[in-house]
Amino acid sequence: MEAVIQKASVLVEALPYIRKFEGKTVVVKYGGSAMTDPRIRTSTAEDVVLMKYVGMNPIVVHGGGPAINGMLKRLALESKFHQGRRITDDAAIEVVEMVLAGSVNKDIVTLLNQAGGQAVGLSGKDANLLHASKIVFEDGSDIGHVGQIVNVHVRILNVLCAAGIIPVIAPIATDSEGGTWNINADTAAGEVAAALQAEKLVFLTDTPGVLRDKDDPDTLIHHLRCGELAQLTREGIVAGGMIPKIDACIKALDSGVSRTHIIDGRVPHALLLEFFTDKGLGTLVTL
Ligand SMILES: Nc1ncnc2c1ncn2[C@@H]1O[C@H](COP(=O)(O)OP(=O)(O)OP(=O)(O)O)[C@@H](O)[C@H]1O
Ligand SMILES: [Mg+2]
Fold first, then answer.
1. Which of 31, 69, 114, 218 has the most CB atoms within 10 Å of its CB?
2. For residue 164, how far is its CA from the centre of ligand 1 (angstroms)?
3. Is residue 258 domain-resident?
4. Total-model pTM
């Protein structure tokens, strides 16, 4: 009996959060590094579907670094990086688009649908969702088809959400000439959250959050303010894959998103714990 009552109290604890987020748009960046364990993939999908059923409008933006590396390797193409960004030549962009908008996107759509949701996958090409221009480096390096977002046409997202559908976005963008651009998934998530003025932006990744020492989980920073972020990057505390997340948090916060979180996507039901309980997980980033 005790256990049953305990279950009821867990549900009641969620009530104020369910009320708070009813009808609100939330963007979830699902990192490629947090996609490896099949059990966790299922629990993540269950969380997103539950969020939809209790009245939120979740939108998923996914990465897929490990899957792209795997396919490049199978095709005997090299994975090359410049300042943390993938050098994307003509051969690589073909693979990046096939893997992200094809296999990874459809895998996530399938998981969400199996968990009882209705998910639709799209890339930035669909309904002109994401338009980009080439990233130009100060040192003149050319890294190919790597773009920065110049425009987000949110109409299709609003149409899908209103119809009860969970949009799942692959971070590929186009331009007015019909080009194909590889966009960092964190950047895409930040831009989508900003354009939608989302309530929250959550990054599911493969680390407990922003760590002072990235190899020591006990050094988790629970709350970061925008003003502190530049210093952390300068000191090299925030590096590699964490840099575009931090930049995306700043972009989203500047555009009116009130809270951004970087949490451990390897923890079962991390999203439910984040949204529906009193326990804050990972790192909260605010203005
Ligand atoms: N201060 C820091 N705290 C925590 N992680 C950090 C920090 N600085 C750098 N990192 C690195 O950032 C990584 C997370 O970014 P990464 O790009 O690897 O994953 P992702 O963005 O979740 O996945 P994907 O790029 O496939 O979408 C961590 O695994 C860690 O190595
Ligand atoms: Mg990344």
1. 31
2. 32
3. yes
4. 0.96
